[in-house]
Amino acid sequence: MNISFYSFGRIRIDNKTLHHDIIINPDGSVLQWQRQQGHLLQNCDLEELLKQNPDLIIVGTGFWGAMKVSEEVEETLDSSDIEVYYLKSAAAVDLFNNTSSTRKTALAIHLTC
Fold it and tell me: Which has the closest alpha carbon to 111: 4, 24, 20?
C-alpha cells in the first residue's frame, strides 16, 4: 500500500482519493476515522486499531498539527511495546510510506487543520 498524495483535506491511496480522516490498519484495511472529540485524540479513538497489534503507530495530527494527543493516549502507548510517532500529517505520510512494507505499521491521520 502506498500513499501517493496528501494535501490539506485530501489523501490518495492506491488510486483512490479520500476527503475524510482515516486509519490504515496493519492488515491494509482503510477505515474512515472519526474521533469522539474532533481535535483531541483519546484512547477510545484507537481501540479498534490497537486490536490489530501494530509494531508501529503513526499519528498524523493534521496539516498544521492542530489535533492534540491526550495524556491518557500517551500513557497508554508509552506503556505498550508499540513504537509511536506523533507528526504533522505530511511527515506522517512520508514515514508511513517508508515503513509500511517492512513493519506492521498503522496510520491514524487527520487530514485538515
Answer: 20
What's the pLDDT tens digit per position in 47-97? 999 999 999 999 999 999 999 999 999 999 999 999 999 999 999 999 999
Task: Give, in order, the Cα–Cα distances in Å from 7 to each of 38, 94, 102, 110.
Answer: 19, 12, 25, 11
Residue 19: CB atoms within 10 Å: 10
CA–chain centroid gap for 101, Å, is 16
Helix (H) or strand (E) holding 96: helix 89-99
Residue 55 grid coordinates? 509494531
Owning domain of residue 97: 3-109
Specify the number of domains making up the chain. 1
With the CA atoms of 5, 47, 28 and 85 taken in that order, what torsion angle do they form, in degrees rounded to the nearest 10? 50
Q: Which CATH number goes with the domain that contains 21?
A: 3.40.1230.10
Query: What digits encode the pLDDT tens for the residues 27-46?
Result: 999 999 999 998 999 999 99
